Amino acid sequence: MGSTDRKVNFNAGPGLLPREVIEEVRENLLSLGSSGVGVMEHSHRGKEFVAVLEAAEAGCRDLLGLNDEWAVLFLSGGASTQFYMAPMNFLNGGTANYLDTGDWSAKAIKEAQRFGTVHIAASSKAEKYVRIPSGPLDEAPGAVYTHFTSNNTIYGTQWRQEPEAKSPLICDASSDIMSRPVALDKYAMIYAGAQKNLGPAGVTLVVVRKDFAASGRKDIPTMLRYTTHIEKESCFNTPPCLPIYVMALVFKWLAKKGGLEGIEKHNEAKAKVLYDCLDGSAFWTTPVEKASRSLMNVVWRLPSEELEKKLVADASAAGFHGIKGHRNVGGLRASIYNAMELADVERFVAFLKSWEKANG
Amino acid sequence: MGSTDRKVNFNAGPGLLPREVIEEVRENLLSLGSSGVGVMEHSHRGKEFVAVLEAAEAGCRDLLGLNDEWAVLFLSGGASTQFYMAPMNFLNGGTANYLDTGDWSAKAIKEAQRFGTVHIAASSKAEKYVRIPSGPLDEAPGAVYTHFTSNNTIYGTQWRQEPEAKSPLICDASSDIMSRPVALDKYAMIYAGAQKNLGPAGVTLVVVRKDFAASGRKDIPTMLRYTTHIEKESCFNTPPCLPIYVMALVFKWLAKKGGLEGIEKHNEAKAKVLYDCLDGSAFWTTPVEKASRSLMNVVWRLPSEELEKKLVADASAAGFHGIKGHRNVGGLRASIYNAMELADVERFVAFLKSWEKANG
Asked: Collapsing DSSP states into helix, strand and coil, what is residue A320?
């Protein structure tokens, strides 16, 4: 049976969750509160789970500052479902701007192309995605929306602020959702798979302007219309109840951390500690342009792949889990999502420094 | 915080889970085995979760007796996603038979109509769904498949055996999957939302013949092709990891119960105890034709709605949760899925008998 000793988890996703959240889940698995029925076993239409759903929605609204013009949806199928669901609803033979900043952007582009014209308004593909495109976008006239990936887990880049576009933004924020405040007025929709900053895999948060959702096509499957889920308050069919419950607890934890302003400071402090270490010696190489660095996924290289492999193994033995880079790019990656503690990053940096002495 | 005292949970879905399964989940939330990383926090591509996925697939294959001609997929979006995904893949302007035995069949029919011709080959709608259609189906010539709902949670009916059709069966088995053996050779595909017999809400089991999957359309979103998920072994994108883990544990539990033959005997014994009680007094009315009675969802009525309301409240106070009938039909319903213990049904029957004496 499992122990309660935990490694420092740098996984890129699914990623770590706050320990206090997991402990609260444990306490409610056999019986949600004093209901006598476990949190996985309640009817999604019963008062106990309805309260969970309401808490999740209220937590999300408070953190992002969403008014009634916005809907909060708890869907399934991951961001990969949004890659086709958004253009299926909104593109409808028209044109949309897509900003190509990595593999996930490229996947969104591929799925959108079935539903209309995808105009690449910015791309860093030619530079192997080591930076976020700068300068004004090359926008298509009359674009219905502008789609971008706010943070790129594989390449370790992040938009420091929202791109400036004439059409409303649709954002895949899977890997930096709620890691910092957002300029809501620029967006029509933000979506995020939960498994990095919000909860376990299995639920996708979608916040969407209700008027934008209403502009979507009606002649598509009922499950694929945003308006269906708005009308049915995420209960058109049985939603992923446990992942939503965990997300509600994460929202509560985030509020205690000072909301998005508080967590942003926390995230900046963690990233600084790690980037400072990597910048402090020529032994480590950071491929990403400094202005494009992600505060969520820190990527770096060593002089050889052998050394990289050794670092992954030695780190694991020392209790630091999941620092192998994505298989598409190699190298090393430490994902330091919201739930990562500053003290754990500091311990990791101390480990890196001593490892450099031994192996550099 | 939650206690560990549990009510007898007759919810129609999400439904109860075996206590030993929940306890094993609890033990692995902070650390899966000795890995130091909780089961919700492992990468879906890491060896620990890959082992979970393999155990889930192997468990499913053993229980259903699936050979290599079959694929086992762990998808998301519930049965409601299969309502459109199956016809989107396979109907393609052709004709399919649909058997209309209740609200869920009707929903599947509605979504299929976007993709071709839906031929109603049997229906009990005119009889308000109180029985399963008998006699030969009125099949459309050249039908691509025949879709049916094996068990109808709302009306409390169940196909005693598979319908005889010339085209391969596609079955929504959400509410009786793995409650008894199936005649696999009649099927092209079986799908089931997990939240009744297999696990928590958030994962959908799909078993599909590989040759049938390969016949599906290619010009649809990548996520909506069964072949995508077969090629990527349910990891085209991040799957719902925790629900899959719970399902793997449920499969292990089912194997210990004697597999599908064992659980069928268990289910027959439970249903007999409850139906015998309801048949034993004119105080209780069972609307469903006897030959069509569900072994999973037992529905009945009392002489008045006031008495029904009182029974729901008194049962709840006595520790019997969730016996209110579906809002579309009213009355009473006890869902006695795989994880329901015979002793709990016997205790409930004793309660019903004493309640009848006091209120009859």
From this structure: strand
Candidates A329, A271, A335, A334; CA nearest to A305 is A329
Sequence-distant (6+) residues with CB within 8 A of B96 are B87, B90, B112, B116, B117, B118, B119, B140, B143, B144, B145, B146, B147, B167
What count of Cα atoms within 13 Å lies in the side-chain half-sphere of residue A161?
7
Helix axis angle, B259-279 relative to B241-256, nearest 10°? 80
Q: How far is B143 from chain A (nearest CA, A)?
A: 22
- Determine the pLDDT at residue A5: 87
Q: Is A196 considered catalytic here?
A: yes
- Does the pLDDT value for residue A200 go beyond 80? yes
Q: Within this chain, do residues A270 and A167 fall inside the same structural domain, yes or no? A: no
Confidence of residue A3 (pLDDT cuts 50, 70, 90): low
Give B-chain residues touching A246 at CB under 8 angstroms: 40
pTM value is: 0.98
Residue B299, pLDDT > 70, answer: yes
Cβ contact B76–A76 (<8 Å): yes
Identify the pLDDT of residue B248.
Answer: 98
- Domain at B178, CATH number: 3.40.640.10
pLDDT mean across residues, chain A = 97
Write the residue in A31, A41, A221 that is nearest to B3 by C-beta.
A31
Measured between its terminal Cα atoms, the distance across chain A in Å is 39
A74 bridge partner residues: A205
Average pLDDT (B254-270) is: 98
- Alpha carbons within 13 A on the beta-carbon side of A81: 24
Are residues B194 and B110 located together in one domain of the fold? yes
Top residue of B34, B223, B229 to mutate, by most chain A CBs within 10 Å, is B223
Q: Are residues B151 and B98 in the same domain?
A: yes
CATH of the domain at B347: 3.90.1150.10
Q: How far is A185 from chain B (nearest CA, A)?
A: 30
Average pLDDT, chain B: 97
